[in-house]
Amino acid sequence: MNGYPFNRRRATAAHLPLGERRDARFYGKHILSVSQFTRTDLEYIFAVADEMRIMVERVGTFDLLKGKILANLFYEPSTRTSSSFTAAMERLGGSVIPINEVRYSSVAKGESLPDTVRTLEAYSDVIVLRHPETGAAALAARYARKPIINAGDGTGEHPTQALLDLFTIREELGRLEGLTVTMLGDLKYGRTVHSLARLLALYGARINYVSPEILRMPREIVEELERQGIPQREYTMLDDVLAETDVLYVTRVQKERFEDLDEYEQVKDAYVITTETMKRAKPAMILMHPLPRVSEIALDVDLDPRAAYFRQVEYGLYVRMALLAMVLGKA
Ligand code: ASP
Questions:
Q1: Is there a contact between 131 and 102 (Cβ–Cβ < 8 Å)?
Q2: Do 149 and 30 contact (CB within 8 A), yes or no?
Q3: Is residue 114 within 8 Å of 102, Cβ to Cβ?
Q4: What is the pLDDT of residues 204-244, one digit of tens each?
């Protein structure tokens, strides 16, 4: 019963028209780690994302965030995260300051992250930050008066990706409970799986980790989920778990994180999903990937209806629209 009146109030808020809600839990808040979310929060985010989808399908662009400005600050390469935040803001009627190439900004002159953030917040209402160092978003948040959204901090977390991943699973399979999820590839450096495993724990998933020995899931995450009673098992062979898998989440081997490129060469092609692999998978399994794909999934697998990774990209737009509306007090 704990928290019931609060949940009820939130459920009611979700039924008000978009723009007339001000959800205290998200308004003006940073989004730094998935650890800040409860299941109630996730259900709320997904309900708003559902509405965003309907609105985009119906009218394309609308004025919910008219007059608001997003600073998109990327210290690392990005295609989807950066452009989906831009698209999200523009579909909501807002505008964007794009800093996709910090090389051409004052960062190249040696400006610190706190100074860059304190500058950008003078011009904007929310800052989306991608940075190569774990903890960079949390550091930025210490200095910022405007919401910071973590768009990937080194090998740490990628919370907005994990939210869209979970939304994808919900849309594709119609449920989040009782699933067996297999994460494959670079589980050590892949920040998306660090965030996703933590979110799946809220739904009691059974998680399989399949990776080369040197790219295993970090111990602190395995232990964190162990304390929550989540069944987790580690393998090096996909075939050991493929037949029982409901969601196969493939990751890219993160070349940019290796100190020794010879080591990268040894593991870069450790797993490749082919049409043969798909024959041994459940007919209702979904195949996900945060993208970019390098060689982990053969191109002809794209034709398999279970290949969900490009649909996953689209779901990302709705989830990021929902997040922007929420932190700016319009959802
Ligand atoms: N785009 C994802 C990320 O930024 C996955 C990847 O790069 O492999 O973490």
A1: no
A2: yes
A3: no
A4: 999 999 999 999 999 999 999 999 999 999 999 999 999 99
Structural domains in the chain, CATH included, are 15-157+316-327 (3.40.50.1370), 159-312 (3.40.50.1370)
Q: Which residue has the tokens 């051409």?
A: 104
The answer, yes or no, to whether any atom of ligand 1 lies below 6 A from the CB of 268, is: no
pLDDT at 8 (0 to 100): 36
As a whole number of angstroms, the distance between CA 175 and CA 160 comes to 19
Write out pLDDT tens, residues 48-100. 999 999 999 999 999 999 999 999 999 999 999 999 999 999 999 999 999 98
Q: Residue for token digits 């698209």? A: 87
The 10 Å Cβ neighbour count of residue 5 is 9
Question: Residue 3: pLDDT above 60?
Answer: no
Who wins on pLDDT, 18 or 47? 47
Taking the C-alpha atoms of residue 260 and residue 184, their distance in angstroms, rounded to an integer, is: 21
Per-residue confidence (pLDDT) for residue 41, from 0 to 100 = 97
* Angstrom distance (rounded) from CA 160 to CA 33: 9
CA of 195 to the centre of ligand 1 (A): 12
**Helix, strand or coil, per DSSP, at residue 246:** coil
Q: How far apart are CA 113 and CA 45, in angstroms?
A: 29
Ligand 1: distance of its center to the CA of 102 in Å?
Answer: 18
**Backbone phi and psi for residue 207, each to the nearest 5 degrees, phi listed first:** -120, 130
Whether 317 has a pLDDT exceeding 60, the answer reads yes
Question: Nearest CA to 79 among 315, 313, 323, 322?
Answer: 313
**Please, is 118 exposed, middle or buried when counting C-beta atoms within 10 Å of its C-beta (0-12, 13-18, 19+)?**
middle
Question: If you measure from the C-alpha of residue 81 to the centroid of ligand 1, how many angstroms do you get, rounded to a whole number?
Answer: 9
